[in-house]
């Protein structure tokens, strides 16, 4: 299995994701890797860690998710691996529930998201976003 973390999706990948079939509520699994130090384009906050920069983004995005009718279901540090093998563990896992693909898309392109995305870019070394659907619906 080849695993490639990224900060932003390639245009074709984003297009395929957002033009997928609307199938109601889903949970996005976020596997996050942070930079040791935040790297803001303007050079600000040189002593801030990547995790600290991402936390600024995460706190703001939680409010956006809740405003859509979604919810942050879980957020926590990765502390170990019991099964399987990976070259490097992720630093954090977050589970965010969204009411629909349309709501997620609207949030993703909103001015509010654009206003905070620099914290995400400054803090993240890469991540995986995995869309999941409940089997109990």
Description:
The chain is of the alpha+beta class. It has one domain: Alpha-Beta Plaits, CATH 3.30.70. The chain contains 4 helices and 4 strands; from the N terminus they run αβαββααβ. The chain has helices at 11-18, 50-67, 101-108, 111-123; strands at 26-34, 71-77, 92-98, 124-132. A 4-stranded antiparallel sheet has the order 2-3-1-4. α2 runs antiparallel to α4. It starts with 10 loop residues before the first helix and ends in a 5-residue tail after the last strand. The model has no long low-confidence stretch (mean pLDDT 94).
Report the helical percentage: 25-40%
> Strand tally, please?
4
Run of helices and strands:
HEHEEHHE
Q: Poorly predicted ranges (pLDDT <50, ≥5 residues)?
A: none
End-to-end distance: 30 Å
Oligomer: single chain
Q: In the CATH hierarchy, what is the architecture at level 2? A: 2-Layer Sandwich
What does the average pLDDT come to? 94
Main sheet attributes: strand count, strand direction, barrel closure? 4 strands, antiparallel
Assign the CATH topology.
Alpha-Beta Plaits
CATH class descriptor name: Alpha Beta
User: Which structural class should the secondary elements be placed in?
Assistant: alpha+beta
**What is the percentage of strand-forming residues?**
15-25%
- Total count of domains: 1
Shape type: globular
Largest sheet: spatial strand order? 2-3-1-4
Instruction: Tell me the Rg in angstroms.
Output: 15 Å
